[in-house]
Write a structure and sequence with these properties.
Belongs to the peptidase M48 family. This protein is mainly α and about 375 residues long. It is about 45% helix and about 5% strand. The structure holds zinc ion (ZN).
Length: about 375
């Protein structure tokens, strides 16, 4: 497994620098100007949604919730995230889309863009701890995971495997297809993985034609899958970044990042000789990650990230676990708490974020924040 480690290469500094200014707004040049934009499907925070009854109050004005700093607000039901509105007008087919093509270089560089947006949206004290941190692409075949780690000099780095990037891209495109065309492609993909995926092997790819060719290149599906790809990564990376700026790794102190991650560094992470699993820290990192992604999403000019990507990723791994109860296919399942435990944390954090207008006053008692 570690033989390919010398292929590790940073996708960090340059991409991150771009990410700070570029956010995740991708060009929509393929879409005719007359087409509805997904970016407009979510109204500005607090504004009534398109098509929603005008008397619905915005999230922050929910009556009956006294704001008690330091205590979780009373929960009488979930505060809904904005819903995704499917545009009705199809457009010209999109040829050569990097998610449709599973273009790993593009998937990596977009991860760098998301990382830049997350770091840019952190509170100053947290941002100072992780600014300039290297971000490593790990090509280990069949490895599906993301890491916050320290190198031999106790310098921090972040890493994500190509396998996790590919899985997130596939989830994004099958979910986008399901949302727009009412298919069940994500379920089909899950069953395919459960039957055919083997640990340490390349991620199983559905055959050509798995998605109807017209649906596959539909510009609404292509744009939606990009949103979902970024939104899922924002949670995965926001969580790992949280381990650094919350002090769990102990090596991110604003002294800059690792100047060269060796294969041994990631090997240590993969073999789990570092103490990387700690339930209170995992919950705290989920809370931090959700707050970070929502803050970063609020800065986006088009589509604003919600907790939907987090729920999607966690739902995917929960379903996979249900389908393969006796098998650990991906390391992601081993190094994080069960996704069904994480989903309520994500949802409650996001609800609180909206109720407080983005002030992350809520931490799970006893779990820090
Ligand atoms: Zn974690």
């Amino acid at each position: 497994m570690l033989a390919s480690m010398n292929l590790l290469r940073p996708i960090g500094a340059l991409v991150l620098a771009l990410g700070l200014v570029a956010g995740c707004q991708r060009g929509s040049s393929r879409r005719p100007a007359s087409q509805p934009s997904y970016g407009q499907a979510y109204p500005p925070y607090g504004a009534p949604q398109q098509g929603a009854p005008p008397q619905q109050p915005g999230y922050p004005q929910q009556p009956g919730y006294p704001q008690q700093p330091g205590y979780p607000p009373a929960q009488t039901g979930p505060v809904p995230a904005p819903t995704f509105n499917v545009p009705t007008m199809p457009g010209l087919p999109v040829l050569g889309d990097p998610i449709n093509d599973i273009n790993v270089s593009w998937l990596q560089s977009e991860a760098g863009v998301v990382m830049g947006a997350l770091i840019g949206a952190l509170p100053a004290a947290s941002q100072q701890k992780v600014r300039g941190i290297p971000f490593i692409a790990d090509p280990t075949v069949g490895e599906v995971n993301a890491f916050a780690g320290c190198d031999d000099q106790r310098m921090p780095f972040m890493a994500i495997t190509d396998g996790l990037l590919e899985v997130e891209a596939q989830i994004a495109q099958f979910k986008a297809t399901d949302e727009i065309f009412g298919t069940r492609k994500l379920d089909e993909f899950l069953r395919m993985l459960a039957q055919r995926q083997r640990p340490g092997q390349p991620i199983v790819r559905p055959p050509a034609g798995f998605i109807d060719p017209v649906q596959h290149t539909d510009p609404r599906k292509v744009e939606r899958q990009r949103q979902l790809y970024h939104e899922q990564l924002a949670f995965v990376l926001g969580h790992e970044l949280g381990h650094h700026h919350l002090g769990h790794t102990g090596c991110a102190n604003g002294q800059g990042g690792s100047r060269g991650v060796t294969p041994a560094d990631l090997g240590r992470m993969l073999s789990r000789t570092l103490p990387i699993f700690n339930q209170p820290n995992e919950i705290a990192a989920d809370v931090a990650g959700v707050n970070n992604l929502l803050a970063a999403g609020a800065r986006q000019q088009g589509y604003r990230w919600t907790e939907g990507g987090a729920m999607l990723t966690l739902g995917f791994f929960a379903s996979l676990d249900q389908l393969t109860p006796a098998t650990i296919l991906f390391a992601f399942e081993q190094t994080h708490p069960h996704p069904l435990l994480r989903q309520p944390v994500v949802q409650q954090t996001a609800n609180t974020w909206r109720m407080t207008g983005g002030a992350p006053v809520f931490t799970f008692p006893g779990f820090g924040g």
